[in-house]
Amino acid sequence: MHDIHLVKAIADLAIFIEFSDDAVLDEDSGVEALEQLTTELALMETAAKEALANQLEALAPSYEDPLLRAFVASLPDALGLDED
Asked: Does residue 54 belong to any structural domain of this protein?
């Protein structure tokens, strides 16, 4: 199990990258950053990926904005944590 603060930091970073305006973050740079995050997370052991996926899904309801809630709930799939 991962520290919930680490899980929230991953979720918040993904939210920032995904929802930042182009004036704040170049779209290509954002895509590259998410790809790098996905690549790094893919190196985790299967059990750790499953635990992180479960914690992201459990964290999602804590976001008040329905758009952010849905986005965080979709992160396990988007970050490749459901693949093996």
From this structure: yes
